[in-house]
Amino acid sequence: MGIYAMDFALKFNHSIFSTPYPPKPSPKCRFLTARCSLPLSSDGAATGLAERPWKVADARLVLEDGSIWRAKSFGASGTQVGEVVFNTSLTGYQEILTDPSYAGQFVLMTNPHIGNTGVNFDDEESRQCFLAGLVIRSLSITTSNWRCVESLGDYLAERNVMGIYDVDTRAITRRLRQDGSLIGVLSTEQSRSDDELLEMSRSWDIVDIDLISGVTCNAPYEWVDETKLEWDFNSDGRDRDTYRVIAYDFGIKHNILRRLASYGCKITVVPSTWPAAETLKLKPDGVLFSNGPGDPSAVPYAVETVKEILGKVPVFGICMGHQLLGQALGGKTFKMKFGHHGGNHPVRNLRNGHVEISTQNHNYAVDPASLREGVEVTHVNLNDGSCAGLAYPALSIMSLQYHPEASPGPHDSDCAFREFIELMESTKQAA
User: Fold this and answer.
1) Number of C-alpha atoms within 13 angstroms, CB side, residue 23?
2) I need a surface site. Which of 61, 367, 408, 424 has the fewest CB within 10 A?
3) What are the tens digits of pLDDT across the range 347-374?
């Protein structure tokens, strides 16, 4: 066992405190030497030291392009595969974590500071976390919010969701913007080689997979929770007539249901496979086709359900519901390069010329050129010109590619719920 020695020489010159200029070297300087010794292990490392007060890299994100990103883990441990997408929202990470539309995906937050407000039980958008993992730059070591009940790390660990931090999220985002969304593997298992993880990323694909069946409800239920008064910025619907709405759960967010309820709707939520005939038996005033994860072409049963309902009652499609409506109207959907994920996407309403800042979360879009005659494009994404909304007045159809409930995000598009109410009201009056 060797001896590790450190010598410190400290010089003291009393005149330095009494003169404004650097003192000249003096032969009367005092020298103090301190010496400490620590035993060395066979590999030269000092033993007997206390555990490091900081966490070291213990996780890897391996992308299908062959890049390997070392990081530190939090939340759950293990190995998980998913599609890596980036989200540009500045706030609302808990709503993002509980958005079922992220099933099968690793969400990379471009905002570098995550976890500083902890988590609470009021902001959850579904019954659990459906995303495959969370990738962030900096994990807050403290929480500061009056509603906080738990830290982000503990929250993810309890829900078996993996997370990594201290990774260059800016560099990964630039790679995704250049090359498109990539399949990746998160792992904390040191026994797995880089080559093994790379092979996993290249042998899995999110395209043509039915992700909706894993996030939908198991049986119909009545929604009874309205937006709480302290959060309700529009309560006009409380004095309106009641409209009965059937909401197809393709991965529906709670705040969509809260907003509909606030506008005076009585809502029954049904599973994604609920037969159209059973829906029509309930004689609803309108049908909502909700948001949801994955490829709309992978759920032909949902498209058939939409087709059977069109023309019978007014319908409103949001995100996945918008894409399913597009296919039901003869259109085609396609996978975008890296999709839209964030709370700051500008959209132009072509009917009134207004620009709305919207919340978006989708990797697929409708090709407007493929739609049948009479279908109107009502909204356009100003970042890339993609279709962001449709209407077909002949069949009382309206849809948006983004999330008007904006949880999290701006409230610019909340008027879409009022438009749905007006669509049901006008149809009822015309009957």
Assistant:
1) 14
2) 367
3) 999 999 999 999 999 999 999 999 999 9
Is domain 59-203 given the CATH code 3.40.50.2300 in the classification? no
The 10s digit of each residue's pLDDT in 38-74 is 444 444 444 444 566 678 999 999 999 999 999 999 9
Block residue for tokens 């590999």: 43
293-329 core/surface letters (b: 16 or more CB in 10 A; e: else): bbbbbebeebbebbeebbeebbbbbbbbbbbbbbbbb
Q: For 383-407, how does the pLDDT look when each residue is reduced to its tens digit (9 = 90+)?
A: 999 999 999 999 999 999 999 998 8
Query: What is the residue extent of each domain of the chain?
Result: 59-203, 212-430
What torsion do the CA atoms of 248, 251, 253, 259 make, to the nearest 10 degrees?
-20
CA angle 352, 355, 360 (to 5 degrees): 120
Residue type, 14: H
Owner of token pair 């008064």: 229
The strand ranges marked E within 272-409 are: 286-289, 315-318, 332-349, 355-367, 376-381, 387-392, 397-400
Which pLDDT does position 430 carry in this prediction? 86
Residues with a catalytic annotation lie at 319, 403, 405
Q: What is the 3-state secondary structure (H, E, C) of 108-133?
A: EECCCEECCCCECCCCCCCCCCCECE
Q: pTM of the predicted model, to two decimals?
A: 0.86
The verdict on domain 212-430 having CATH code 3.40.50.880 is yes
